Amino acid sequence: MDNGPLRITGNLDLLDAEGNHFETTESFILCRCGLSNKKPFCDLTHKGQFESAPRA
């Protein structure tokens, strides 16, 4: 999402670089700004503090 998190949908496993598993649902959002207190998940802390709208 522009100026916000990455929305993920689907049934998948989320692992960190060390292989640790994160519990997920079929739809969740990942932090892109680095401000979230629930990393790797977004807690909406970014609102008004993060700008990024890349285009492919």
Structural class: mainly beta
What's the total count of β strands?
4
Number of helices: 0
Spell the H/E element sequence.
Answer: EEEE
Could you please describe the fold and organization of this structure?
The chain is mostly beta strands and 56 residues long. It has no helices and four strands. It has strands at residues 6-9, 14-15, 21-22, 27-30. It has a two-stranded antiparallel sheet. It is globular. The mean pLDDT is 93.
Sum this structure up briefly.
The protein is mostly beta strands and 56 residues long.
Keywords:
56 residues, mainly beta, two-stranded antiparallel sheet, 0% helix, 21% strand
Detail the topology: elements first, then pairings.
Blueprint: E1 6-9, E2 14-15, E3 21-22, E4 27-30
Antiparallel strand pairs: 1-4, 2-3
